[in-house]
Amino acid sequence: TRDRKKKMTNDTTTINPLLLGIKQTYGQTLLTKIQTSTRILLVGAGGIGCELLKNLALCGFTQIEIIDLDTIDVSNLNRQFLFRSHHVGMSKCSVASQVSLNMLPSGGKQGRYEAHLGNVLDTTRFTVPYIKSFDLVLNALDNIPARRRVNRLCLAAGTPLVEAGTTGYLGQVTVIDKASNVECYECKAKPTQKVYPICTIRSTPSQPVHTIVWAKELWKLLFGSKVEDSMLFEDDDIGKEEENEEERKTEDKEEEDKEEEKEKSTYMEQVTSLRTLLSTKTNDSKEQIHKATTTILHALYGLEIQKQINMDRYKSSKTLPTPITLEQIETSVKENGVAPSKQKTFVSTNVWSMEENIQEFISCVVDAYTLLQKHSDDESTTSPLVPEFDKDDDLSMRFVTCASNLRSIVFDIQPIQSYYGAKGIAGNIIPAIATTNAIVAGLQVLQVFHILKRQMELEETKGKEDKDKEKEDCKGGVAQDCRYIYCLRDKTRKGYYLQPTTLPEPNPECFVCRNATISLSLNTKEWTMEQLLHRLLKKELGFESPTILIGDDIIHEEGEGADEETYKPNLKKVLVDLPCGGIKDATIVRVEDFTQDMEVDLCVQHKEEWKVEEGEEEKEEIEKFVIGGEKPWARKDDGTSKEKEEKEGDDDDDDDGIEVVESPSKTSKSAEKDDNEEDDDDDDDIEIVEAPSKE
């Protein structure tokens, strides 16, 4: 015992205490490999990324490259501990690499941390050969397109990937390695976004999220570069043309004409006037804007609501909305002219009264005018009147809070939101927990140790004559040592907050790691080649530079060395009219993407009739398709978990409604695991996604 204590004492004098545990646990050989030759690529320098870099540096990793395209924002400082206030506006990867390099036991003298400011989706910079130059890759990303890209690059390069994500108190870590026969990131279906019909947002809201989406559209209507981009936009001129056309038709249409006349906008004239005032500078502009804003408030929350009531829009509703009168608005303004957010007693968790919301609304419009005048000389005619909505922008968030609250008051929707609560819904912020980030990052580094240890064992085995043992080790790969680990909010029956499971086997239907054939149903007589390329192959399936073949003949080609001009005329053609017999029912289409080393066969089925479910709106043709039943890589639910809530960060454009990514609702341990499994990163908040006529 005395000798062992003496030996440990000698160790601590010859090696940094931070590295002593690694040496005693994994051996000097692995520690030497970490300090001298292991090359690691970290993708993402946010909440998890910062914790990872800190851990890697303290563990002695000397060769790390970091990819991130983001800059540091004030809101990052409370959980991304490598950053300080003087770093705001600087590149995350640059600052994180420099700060963490100084954390090396050598003080940064023997390390090389290289930052790459850019998007990992850039196919010219981040390629398969680039990924092959690393021993392993760590993901700390905040969006699914980027995760897909890294997943595919690592599979193509044969480089192990340690994937992770957190949502509030929940988190998970897994290892993806093609040689080890474990599932990849795309072996399981990714959740889709919930779609709320426009009519719900515009006319029949019933939840706070409905009124907040409406308020964001109002922000766009009043301050956006193009007023018609807002779903609240109404064109009276178009209405008049339609009426004139109807008047020339049969007398049977007279009642429809009258109905259309009733539906003329109650607020667009006021909106136009306000937008004109915002771009005009006169001595009494602020007073005019104050008056115009009062008029708009009455039009939106009074006249428009009353019009809808008169049209019997709410005859089936349990309660009728209550319009806000002009007298109530004017009284609120006279009582106290100071907006609640500008009072010394302001607290972001306070809930404002109707009067305070009205005062805040007017204050926001006046502030927008002031902001516009400051930058009027720099703004072009096509620029927005004020910056686009951003949950981290105080002005736009104040506006959305008060505008949505007033609508909630009109429709008696509870609860009325505080500034803090509205921000959580508008940006779909599941509060980031710094401790969860730290736990998950620590688990990732433990997986790194397991992977490096396995790599060393395989290298040693290859030099021996025991081929059977080599074959056995290669068969298991990292699956023998690594685990899929869940970080839970509530402890298990055994009292654990971490729940490890064996790495799942690949989904045999996964088109990414199993090259499975994908069935695709759509109307081949309506879809064009361009729609197939952008809506399905690139957006839905994540191809970057696809080459499309019918038989052995190329009909479209992209990527380095491709002759894109030759195939450009095919883009506007309907699928059935394409060369080589076209794409029609039962056609097998081969799609290749050499930037991701992927080859997939699409089995196309022609379908013209699409059933519209009760309560749904008719979709545009470009949204009428079915891939592999639901998704080509989808697994059947085993019934142990609640249906997954939609939390996807992809922009999925759809004219039929507003897509909203909501926070999850957990009712069981398994639900926590399944819901969180598809989560994006911890802190980069998923937005409520609007549905324009469009990663």
Task: Please supply descriptive tags for the structure shown above.
eight-stranded mixed sheet; six-stranded mixed sheet; single chain; alpha/beta; globular; 695 residues; disordered C terminus
What's the gist of this structure?
The protein has helices at residues 2-14, 17-26, 28-36, 47-58, 92-101, 128-132, 144-157, 198-202, 208-223, 236-247, 254-262, 268-278, 285-310, 326-335, 354-374, 394-410, 419-426, 434-462, 467-476, 529-540, 564-567, 669-677; strands at residues 39-43, 63-68, 112-117, 136-139, 161-167, 170-176, 194-197, 484-487, 498-501, 518-522, 547-550, 553-556, 588-593, 598-606, 626-627, 657-660. It is of the alpha/beta class and 695 residues long.
* Biggest β-sheet description: 8 strands, mixed
Strand order of the largest sheet: 3-2-1-4-5-6-8-9
As residue ranges, the low-confidence spans are 8-13, 237-253, 256-262, 469-475, 629-695
Please tally the helical runs, counting DSSP H or I stretches of 4 or more residues.
22
Structure summary, number of beta strands: 16
On the 0-100 scale, what is the average pLDDT?
Answer: 79
How much helix, percentage-wise, in residues?
25-40%
Strand content: 5-15%
Terminal-residue CA separation: 60 Å
Shape: globular
The structural class is: alpha/beta
Based on CA atoms alone, the radius of gyration comes out at 29 Å
